[in-house]
């Protein structure tokens, strides 16, 4: 088995248009959640969401934009950053073996929304000719492959909120097995459309706006938590066989050492303690580490009543006595839930937490919940020298539970 | 303005190509208009000329081919006899609409429609106001 390094990071997410700025924002405890002010949001019961600082016209010509849903735009920019930060000098051989492993839950939802609006609201048959190509779930991954001429496998995973965590995990398996020295892995989501927001609203999982401070509406692990806040963004990492990276003198951000993938098949939406605990245990097992070696978990921590209590119980089950000493934080309190992109975005957070020895906080945790009684790094970042191993968890509707394990280098 | 001139103006606007490169005998591959770009252009042409292209778009070689194709469709459209008694023809559609108990237009046809009327838009925002 090969060892797998992360040699490139790219990200656009609420709080920053690059990994460094994004992490700095989280470490400062700044929330990027706000009230949407576009006209169409008047019909929403909950108008809070997390927008990424992203102006597509800076990155793409008008002609390109006609073919790119926002989800692809975000994905392309994150991938470009990741490749630049890895300083890859492409050869024909490298392009031929490098694959793109991408995750998205909702795909091109802006395009889908616009298509339906044309058809049903406007009563027009004039659906845009590129609707299929722009809305399809694999568009973002395909465009990344096209832009960089990568002809290895180009695979899109859609497992709801664990999509991009699965994408990273599956890419990791391939690089670890020696199938290719390089892989791009990540995900993107752009769900801030009327149709998507309304659908989530109907599911009664979205947070109620905090009347005193909308930015504080997402309160993971707190007793007064009311739900999740949707966000948009993308993150991509370059996975590289460690010796390959060393030979070319690449900077290594961390090693990915474990991947736990478990389907709980218990319920389409309700989280499962057993499923989540087994994902943690499997990640530890594949990393060949003991529970007490883990120094930080970037939790799934959505801020819903169900998830946070279940995840707490799962961590206790998987880590035993060590759970009480193990810092766990949910940065979703600041950047919201990026659905299919969440896994990759929070992997970047986890990697930068290891590199900077800074644990980003769970914000808005003022009212403790007896069911959530771990160390959630509440309300302020914490210096954490000596943390060598960190995990990030992503749990999804449909029951696909994923935990990735990162080791500091 | 000829059909070609109108199409040429659309290409200049939508594809940001220099006018001097756009002649009747210009090969599409020379100006990198691939099959997707042509699909997009034909979509715009349908709106501009109020025509409906055939299900399969022919393989055009030159800009002139496109103009000839559009001119033919326009001619075919204009040659179609205008129904003598449109009211009788609209009857089945009116019946269908009535059966669905929808106040929506009973004259849904093949002709391209403009975007939603202000009336329609107003109705949807009123619905939204109630929802809140």
Question: How would you describe this structure to a colleague?
Answer:
The complex is a heterodimer of chains A (409) and B (132). Chain A is an alpha/beta fold and 409 residues long. Chain A folds into two domains: 4-247, Peroxisomal Thiolase, Chain A, domain 1, CATH 3.40.47; 255-407, Peroxisomal Thiolase, Chain A, domain 1, CATH 3.40.47. Chain A is 36% helix and 18% strand. Chain A contains 15 helices and 14 strands. Chain B has 132 residues and is an all-alpha fold. In chain B, helix 1 crosses helix 3. The chains are: A alpha/beta (409), B mainly alpha (132).
Q: Which regions of chain B have little confidence, pLDDT < 50, spanning 5+ residues?
A: 88-132
Terminus-to-terminus distance of chain B: 51 Å
Q: What structural class do helix, strand and pairing data of chain B support? A: mainly alpha
Percent range for helical residues of chain A? 25-40%
Q: How many strand segments of chain A?
A: 14
Approximate shape of chain B: elongated
Helical residues, percent of chain B: 40-55%
CATH architecture grouping of the largest domain in chain A: 3-Layer(aba) Sandwich
Supply the number of helical segments of chain A: 15
Biggest beta sheet summary of chain B: none
Average pLDDT score of chain B: 74
Principal-axes shape call of chain A:
globular
Rg of chain A, Å, rounded: 20 Å
- Which structural category do the helix and sheet elements of chain A fall into? alpha/beta
Mean pLDDT level of chain A: 97
Secondary-structure element sequence of chain B?
HHHHHH
Characteristic terms for this protein:
heterodimer, A: 409 residues, alpha/beta, Peroxisomal Thiolase, Chain A, domain 1, ten-stranded mixed sheet, B: 132 residues, mainly alpha, 55% helix, 0% strand, elongated, disordered C terminus
SSE topology:
The complex is a heterodimer of chains A (409) and B (132).
Chain A: E1 4-12, H1 19-27, E2 33-35, E3 48-50, H2 56-59, H3 62-65, H4 70-86, H5 92-97, E4 99-103, H6 109-121, H7 131-135, H8 139-148, E5 154-157, H9 163-176, E6 182-189, H10 194-202, E7 233-241, H11 242-247, E8 254-263, H12 273-287, E9 296-298, H13 305-319, E10 328-329, H14 332-335, H15 342-356, E11 358-359, E12 382-383, E13 389-395, E14 400-407
Parallel strand pairs in A: 4-5, 4-6, 9-10, 9-13
Antiparallel strand pairs in A: 1-7, 1-8, 2-3, 6-7, 8-14, 11-12, 13-14
Helix pairs in contact in A: 1-15, 4-8, 9-15, 12-13
Chain B: H1 3-15, H2 35-49, H3 63-79, H4 86-89, H5 91-99, H6 118-131
Helix pairs in contact in B: 1-3
